Amino acid sequence: MNNNALIPTIGVVTSIRRDTPDVKTFTVVRADTGTGVCFKHMPGQCAMLSIPGVGEAMFSITSSPTCTDHMEFSIKKCGCLTSWLHQMDVGQQVTVRGPYGNGFPVTTELKGKDLVFIAGGIGLAPLRSVIEYMLANRADYGHIDIVYGSRSKEDLVDIDIIRDVWMKAPDVDVHLTIDRPQDDWDGHVGFVPAYVTELGFDPNKTVLVCGPPIMIKFTLQSLGELGFEKTQVYTTMELRMKCGVGKCGRCNIGTKYVCKDGPVFRFDQLDELPDEY
Amino acid sequence: MLKLKTANADALYSRISDSAKLYLPVKRAGQVNYDLWESGCEVTLGEMTVKSPKDLFFPQSEDLMAFRVSGKSIEIENPELPTEPFVLFGVRACDARSFDVLDRVFLSDPVDSYYEARRNCGTVVSLGCLEPLRETCFCSVFGIDLAEPEGDVQAWVLGDEMYLSAKTEKGEKLLAAVKDLCEETDGAPLAAAKDEARAKMAKNPLADLDLTGFDGEHMMEKFNAPEWKDLYQACLGCGTCTFVCPTCQCYDIRDFDTGHGIQRYRCWDSCMYSDFTMMAAGTNRKTQMERFRQRFMHKLVYFPANNEGMYSCVGCGRCVSKCPMHLHIAKVIRTLGGKKQ
């Protein structure tokens, strides 16, 4: 029966971490064995999570495929289902189906490249999967820069991992920024796009960007001014989805279904589509 | 090819019903729709059904699975997919083509198990039009031959006789079971009648619609056409066009608390509705203009660009006659398409 694409598997939440006032990271394992991932995925792919009777929605898989004993989902509380997920306790079962979408081209176009990750707020969630995959396969990729900004220091997702792992990893530079000055913050203050301009990256690098639409818009401008072409910049999109397999019609943009043909696109590919995302 | 007197059609229907459920156009309370045949029902082959036959393969509402939830635990109850054979009789060429369109969606990888099961259970007896059913018919615009419909069995009604010709193995099986009610024929009188039907179709008011420019190459030009701003104005966003459309296949998935568990089901939805793309963070199609444009861009540009030029409109004309504001795909093609001389 599990060749039926709409039927999920059951997962169980084994730990819940509060990252920020409105973001929690949920660890999920298979319910039948009590360990392991519900299915294999590649960085940037997504999963449909649901609580029967509450709703089902698409989330990026935050953990890397190199993590094989569980899956992680960093989820911001913003609607019906996410509010429910935020109030549940460890031990709750959830339904999981996937993997959906194309993911970032980590085994092809991104291989051997110097990379710049640019994230705002919860936009780090899909990129963490890629960063951790690359750190686990370090020899396959060049220098890694990570620019990550949020409203305040309390709103930085995954901050412990960033400080304890990424900042100590070889050939990785992390650049954190918050929107407004705060006590006990001696890092950069200012919006992500301006910080990108200030950091002045070599335009031969490849960029992966994810964050609020307004951040993406101005970051693209900054990158353009630095000499980056649209063919060097990737992003991942978010649209309403129901089926996840390109049939229910919701995430259709031009000739593409974001759930199946995306969610990862290069900006030159997006330029060929109607501006409806 | 077989033929029988239309006066004996009830015997044919009755025989088919012996081994399968038979659905065909039936008039009830003044409306013709596909319905289960029963002795004495008012079979009405000569009228366009209000709704298309798509819900025999893609029901308006359909259970997907159920869940038993107790405390923090969830158990899935898999659905029982349909296995009972049925016959869909009297499908016109436009609707027969719509099954090809739906197949492209539901039978492409990953296959939709529910649709596939229904499709496998169904035998389609199509009915060639020996004259256009209505003034609003324009199937010929999409390269559909009204007189030669696709299907497992082709049927025609000419004068007081019904002709039947099997096109597939399923069709041959069906005709083998009714052979003794019919007599063999070479179907000679049909040729002239078919030509006459095509000639009449060519004179239908919408037969001159010109699809020039509706293709992937002109996607951005069509999307950015200034005419959309005027075209959509009267649209109420009622979704009638999508519900009577034989090819509209967008669906919603929802959960219903039955009191004994959670039933997950899907139902037809419409891209014309404002909440179709609504997320917690907002919607990417904020105005009715954008939603209206999406429906027609999908049928006339995006779908054919992804399916070797096959349009996701079959010219059945249901939306033309049902839209309360007289806004419809023919008007869109007339405004944004080419101008046939």
Describe this entry's structure for a reader:
The complex is a heterodimer of chains A (277) and B (341). By secondary structure, chain A is of the alpha/beta class. Chain A has 2 domains: 9-100, Translation factors (Elongation Factor Tu (Ef-tu), domain 3); 115-236, Rossmann fold, CATH 3.40.50. Chain A is built from 7 helices and 15 strands. In chain A, α4 packs parallel to α5. Chain A starts with 8 loop residues before the first strand and ends in a 6-residue tail after the last helix. The mean pLDDT of chain A is 95. Chain B is of the alpha+beta class. Chain B folds into 2 domains: 2-202, no CATH class; 216-336, no CATH class. Chain B has 11 helices and 12 strands. Chain B has helices at 9-19, 93-106, 113-121, 169-176, 188-202, 219-223, 228-231, 240-244, 288-306, 318-322, 329-336, and strands spanning 2-5, 21-28, 31-36, 61-70, 73-77, 86-91, 122-127, 153-158, 161-166, 183-184, 251-257, 262-268. In chain B, the strands form 2 sheets. Chain B has an 8-stranded mixed sheet, with helices on both faces. Chain B has a 4-stranded antiparallel sheet with strand order 5-4-12-11, with no helix packed on it. Chain B is globular, with a radius of gyration of 22 Å. Chain B starts with a strand and ends in a 5-residue tail after the last helix. Chains A and B meet through β6 of A and β4, β5, α6, β11 and β12 of B.
